[in-house]
Amino acid sequence: MSFECQVCFESYTDHGTEHAPYSSPCGHIMVKSCLERLKEFGSRDEFNCLFCKKRIIFELCHPIYLSLNDENCQKINSLDFIDEFIKKEYEEMSRNSFCPSLPYDHGKMRRANAGKYFDPKAVVGDFISNNSETSAGNDAISLEGSTRFKHFWIH
């Protein structure tokens, strides 16, 4: 990876060298030699930033310490991170759910047929009404069975 000065287009080098990166008070970055040249043409060690025209006092500029040698940097594969995150979240959800190994069926049911399921402990066939949810006029019922779950949207 290469970073370069936007004034002279030279690559940044290590701290203490002529092309070490320096930050001005306005936040723009240039190599040390470019800042020194601007200082020479300015008055009283002050000059205008080439990018934003703000007044810069040379003594307020400071070096930026970069690790330009990427041999010591650990490369991160972002897809590995995402896969690991998803796997961890799935395992957490599985641990917290009632019975994650049972299949979960989804369906729709007419409101006229749903009345018997709204009792929190109703037994209908092989299923026990586990809960019912209501949000802004939308109802849903989850039924807990011995071999599977069912979830119905009421319309």
TrEMBL record:
Q: Where are the transmembrane segments?
A: none
Which GO terms label this protein's molecular function in UniProt? zinc ion binding
Can the keyword Zinc-finger be found in this entry's annotation? yes
Q: Which PROSITE patterns match?
A: SH2, ZF_RING_2
| Key words of the record | Metal-binding, SH2 domain, Zinc, Zinc-finger
Could you tell me which residue ranges the RING-type domain spans?
A: 5-53
| Domain SH2 stretches | 104-155
Q: Which SUPFAM superfamilies match?
A: RING/U-box (SSF57850)
Against InterPro entries, the record matches this protein to: SH2, Znf-RING_euk, Znf_RING, Znf_RING/FYVE/PHD
* Source species of the chain: Strongyloides papillosus (Intestinal threadworm)
Q: Can you name this protein?
A: RING-type domain-containing protein
